[in-house]
Inverse folding.
């Protein structure tokens, strides 16, 4: 599982990159066999109330993608919210696949 992290409209620190990798790995490790790659992009929107927006795209091994996003006042908070949402979506998808099989 590869995790690509990028910043849009602000400089990404090494801490933020490592934190995002850790946070996503921890949140979705149990689904690692199904995941080819994860793309995480954080951008800053100075005009918004919660200025950091994290967008996540998960490329699933059999086929398909899972996409989600989250907003927060700080980049790490946006990463946290996006990681939790991604884990929830993957859990929901796996339980739906189990029920329909």
């Amino acid at each position: 599982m590869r995790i690509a992290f990028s910043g849009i409209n602000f400089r990404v620190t090494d801490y933020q990159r490592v934190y995002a990798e850790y946070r996503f790995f921890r949140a979705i490790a149990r689904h690692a066999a199904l995941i080819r790659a994860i793309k995480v992009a954080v951008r800053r929107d100075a005009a918004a109330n919660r200025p950091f927006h994290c967008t996540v795209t998960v490329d699933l091994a059999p086929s398909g993608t899972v996409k989600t996003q989250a907003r927060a006042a700080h980049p790490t908070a946006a990463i946290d919210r996006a990681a939790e949402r991604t884990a929830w979506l993957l859990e929901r998808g796996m339980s739906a696949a189990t029920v329909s099989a």
